[in-house]
Structure formats: C-alpha cells, structure tokens
Design goal:
The complex is a heterodimer of chains A (about 160) and B (about 250). Chain A is an alpha+beta fold and about 160 residues long. Chain A has one helix spanning about 5-30; strands spanning about 45-50, 55, 70-75, 80-90, 90-95, 105-110, 115, 125, 130-135, 145-150, 150-155. In chain A, a hairpin with a 4-residue loop joins strand 6 (about 105-110) and strand 7. Classes of the chains: A alpha+beta (about 160), B alpha+beta (about 250).
C-alpha cells in the first residue's frame, strides 16, 4: 500500500472515532449527575425576564423541578450571574454565582447542601449565601423569591 | 490444557508474590507510620507532546496519610504551632470545621508544617516525581475516577459525605498505598528547573472536596511548572501529607 493510501486508511479510522469521543465528552461535561461541578443553564423556553423580575415556569423547567437540582442563569441585561437551587419541595434559594473571593463561579453541592467555589481554594457558602469557609470573607448576594402556581419569581434588584 | 492455563495463571501472578510484603515494609518508631518499598523505575511523562523519562531510585513511601493522632503526638512533643494557628485562622487542624477522628488524615496543614513534621519524624516529603511514580499503577497508567472500580479507591466530593474518613477506609492501590488519589491533597516538594523559581511545595492528588472529573485531570499532569508561590494556598480543609523514607531496603 502506498504512503498516501495508508494515510487515508488511518484518517478514516480516526474519523470513525470522533462521534465516540464526542459522546464521552458530552457525558463527562454535560450530565450533572456525572459531573458535579457543572450547573446546567436555565432552559430558555421556561423563563421570562421582566425588567428586574425573572419569572420561571417550573412545569417547563427540567433542571429545577426536583429538590436537589440547581440551574444557572446569566443575561446581558443583568450585572451578575445567578444560581437557582431547589432546596426542598416548594423552597428555593437564589444566589449570586460569582464567588466573593476571586469571582470564580460557584456550584451547588447536593451531597453537602451548600455552595462551593470552583477555585482550588474552594470557599464554601450556605444556601443562604453565608460564608462557611474562606478564603472568601463576604457572603454571596441572596435574592428574594416568590412561588405561586408553579411560577417562581426572582426579584433581582 | 487446563494444566497449561493453570501454570500460565500462576506465572502471571509470580511477580506479585515473589517478595513477601513484610520484607518490603518499614515502620517508623517515632510515629508508628508504616511504609512500603517503591522499587526503582522510570517515570514516563508526556510534556508538550514529548515523552520524557525520569529515573526514580527506590524509596519507602508512607502507606497512609499522616493522621490527626500522629500530628497530635508531634505537637505534644515539640509544642509546634501551625501556620493556620499563627494566622488566627477560623479553622485549624484542631478545629477543621468538618467531621474528623484521630485516624483521619490531618488537614489545615501548610507545606512548612508538613516539613516540620518530617524533620521531627526523621523522614521527608516526596518530590512531585516520586509522588507521581508511586500514584500510578504498575502499567504506569493513572487511576481513572468515575468507574465503579475507582469508587473503591477514591474519596471525592460525591461519595465523601462532606468530610474525611479513616486513612485506610478505601482499598490500597497496586503499590499498597491508600488514598494516593482523592481524600486529601498531599504536599510534595517542588522540583525547580532553575534557581529563579520560588515555589517550594505543591499539593497533588485531588481531594474529598473535588469532583471526580477535577481529580481525573489533576492526576496525569506532569510536575508543575513554576507558578508564583503566593497562588498556592497555604492550608485548607483538604491539605494533608504523607512521608517518604530514603533509607536503603537492605
């Protein structure tokens, strides 16, 4: 077989492997149950932003229907990203997603019922935003919510 | 035919049973820490696409992480005050803010604290190369967190219930070492490539606060490049250490 043909055969072999590696990547990085450092974004079909009020239709939101789930939200009209946590049936916490230490994103740790910074020094916060462990010294901003008929309203001001 | 396979199986097992474990271990009378002999070999590293080989001489490595109980004995003997205590940190090794027991790995330990302990115990901290060499299995692959098997070896964020565990609570790796991956980060001596670098120690191995995916990406990385020392946080609820002993096997 000529060098050119061998190269083609090798290329074909690797092209076949691409979908497989993408699938693995998808499992590792996009499945919250597998990757606990990943907080999925809020499904665009399930919310409306009315000025400083974010209204989420929980019936349509796959990432917030059950206690223990969390979703992230960012919008060009908002100064900060937020994390929305379904604590227990009908009870939600909404916090600023930027760690007050160095600004890295925080994630909900279901197993510990707290929020942890992604940084190496992993500042931790309660679900009310209070500092449990530094280096962060300031709490995360906590936003008020109201739940009515499966509509969760978050007051972002 | 059956005989042939039986003999082949025994032959495959032979390297693992040729040295009785008791000949390969050493116990430090100072703190009762048990060590296992890590035979010399070559550490293979991929750096910028190139395969590098680094020869590692044999050494004894602590089977377990240093425990709260052992560190407590060191403090009782010497009156040592850790960096976290000197800095009036909210949490220290005595008050770690997480559930701990005497047989758990000591945490809130800085590199300097770990060095002071090793000086007292007459042992050393491993270099990054030694640590990597010991952490990898016999095929020089890395443990891959996330599989069913690895959950028997590794404490990580999803299975640790928010705290550390006894130092022998998971299975040992193929070298006989417990919790090399996960549980607590372990301080290693930084091997500077030049005299300009001020970095002294580097924590390796991932911890109970890290996701399996984060640990997965930490382990295969080759020894760290120089980073400013100030970026390496001195102490935390997942920083511990284990020791090595450079004494000869014979």
């Amino acid at each position: 077989m000529s060098k050119k043909l061998r190269r083609r055969a090798l290329l074909k072999k690797y092209i076949k492997l691409i979908p497989l590696s993408c699938m693995k990547w998808n499992i590792i990085f996009n499945d919250y149950s597998v990757n606990c450092c990943y907080t999925p974004p809020l499904d665009p079909a399930c919310f409306k932003l009315n000025g400083q009020e974010l209204v989420i239709n929980l019936n349509k939101s796959g990432s917030l229907q059950n206690p223990g789930q969390a979703a992230s939200f960012k919008h060009e009209n908002l100064p900060v990203d937020i994390i929305i946590i379904h604590l227990e049936l009908g009870k939600f916490a909404v916090l600023s997603r930027s760690c007050t230490h160095a600004g890295r994103e925080v994630n909900f740790v279901k197993e510990r019922n707290l929020v942890q910074c992604h940084n190496f020094s992993h500042s931790t916060f309660s679900t009310r935003g209070e500092v449990i462990k530094g280096p962060a010294s300031q709490p995360l901003k906590n936003y008020n919510t109201q739940l009515r008929d499966q509509q969760l309203t978050i007051f972002l001001s | 035919m059956i005989m042939f396979f039986a003999l082949a199986y025994l032959f495959m097992q032979y390297p693992a049973i040729q040295d009785p474990p008791d000949k390969n271990t050493w116990k430090n009378p100072k703190d009762d820490m048990e060590f296992v002999w890590i035979p010399s070999g070559t550490l293979k590293l991929k750096e910028e696409g190139k395969l590098l080989r680094r020869n590692i001489s044999g050494f004894y490595m602590g089977i377990y992480e240093v425990t709260v109980s052992q560190f407590s004995k060191f403090v009782d003997d010497t009156g040592y005050i850790t960096r976290a205590e000197q800095a009036d940190s909210l949490h220290t090794w005595k008050n770690p803010g997480i559930q701990q027991a005497p047989d758990h790995p000591v945490v809130y330990i800085s590199f300097e604290d770990a060095q002071a302990y090793t000086k007292w115990a007459g042992v050393e901290l491993p270099s990054e190369s030694q640590w990597l060499f010991a952490a990898r299995d016999e095929d020089l692959n890395c443990f891959r967190p996330g599989s069913e098997l690895d959950d028997h070896l590794i404490w990580h964020r999803q299975n640790s219930q928010g705290h550390t565990h006894p130092v022998d609570s998971k299975s040992a790796n193929r070298r006989g070492l417990y919790h090399m991956v996960g549980h607590v980060y372990e301080w290693c001596k930084f091997e500077a490539k030049d005299s300009v670098c001020q970095l002294k120690g580097i924590p390796r191995g991932g911890s109970w606060t890290r996701c399996p995916q984060q640990i997965y990406y930490d382990i295969p990385n080759p020894p760290t490049d120089c980073i400013p020392w100030k970026y390496v946080l001195s102490w935390d609820d997942d920083r511990g250490f284990r020791c090595i002993y450079s004494g000869s096997k014979d």
